[in-house]
Amino acid sequence: MNRNKVIVIAILAFIGLVGLFSVGKLWEDIDAGEIVVIQDPVDGELHVYTQPEMVWQGWGKATHYKKSNTFWFSAPSATEKDAPDRSIPVKWNDGGHATISGSVRYDLPTDYKQMVALHSTFGSQEAIENTVIKTNIEKAIYLTGPLMTSKESYAERRNDLIFYIEDQASKGVYKTKQVEVQEIDPITNTEKNTTKVEIQTDTTTGTYKRQEASPVASSGIKLYNISINGITYDKNVEAQIATQQQAIMQVQTAIANSKRAEQDALTTAKQGEADATKAKWEQE
After folding, report:
1. Helix (H), strand (E) at residue 4
2. What's the average pLDDT block by block, 10 residues per block, for the chain (284 residues)?
3. What separation, in Å, do the N-terminal and C-terminal C-alpha atoms of the chain show?
4. For residues 103 and 101, what is the distance between their CA atoms, to the nearest angstrom?
């Protein structure tokens, strides 16, 4: 075998190896649940694919995104001691502190311009979650805390808590104001002055006023189905809530006993009147 043939065989073998290793860069398979952004290798032009199909990649860079995904912001469970704590801190209207664990579902936009803008700015699904989704949830939780007390978040206003977080994260944080209100203390049953934070509303439409539009909405991302799977209160807050609940139960029990005593007294009086009438009738 002469030298020229050896060179030709070597070149062909090299081309074959290059082709073998790069065949995966020629075509890209788009899954039904994905959005794929392909960047051309020469001019850098971005192409967005949202439908399930096989597309020409042409040695370009393909980045896969899930159309819909769940973002978790939870504290590690008892079986996940080494897992990072992703719960989000909150401060309530009465000064109590807690951390909130949960999840939220989100959909990425299928619009070409919106997806190109997200990809150009963040470049990956993880970056979108950490920079856009997480930031908005943190801000929404932080600004929801002053709208209620620790006890209210624990019991009677839990549904409001979930609604306010999802609404502010999706549409923008509220404009609020501080107001002085008079309330009946459930323990002492006396009036007291309390400072509360109220959401400002538009007098014409009745809708909530907002400080700014949510970056989530402006980028085309949709948030929904937020779920709170746990609120961890500081020990002193837990003790305070337990004490308040016990005191309220004692007051309610005392009120019930007092009403029962009043009723028993009325019953006894009525029975006495009936007995007296019966005795008089029998005597006559």
Report:
1. helix 3-22
2. 60 52 69 94 90 88 95 84 88 91 96 96 96 94 94 88 94 92 64 84 91 89 92 77 59 59 64 66 65
3. 147
4. 7
φ, ψ for residue 140, nearest 5 deg: -65, -40
Single-letter code of the amino acid located at 258: S
C-alpha distance from residue 135 to each of 40, 130, 141, 173 (Å): 31, 7, 10, 12
The length of the chain in residues reads: 284
Per-residue CA distances from 25 to 36, 59, 86, 125 (Å): 14, 5, 37, 21
Judge contact between 71 and 224, C-beta under 8 A: no
Q: What does pLDDT average to over the chain?
A: 82
Q: How many CB atoms lie within 10 A of CB 120?
A: 11
The answer for residues whose C-beta is within 8 angstroms of residue 137's C-beta and 6 or more apart is 71, 73, 88, 104, 165, 169
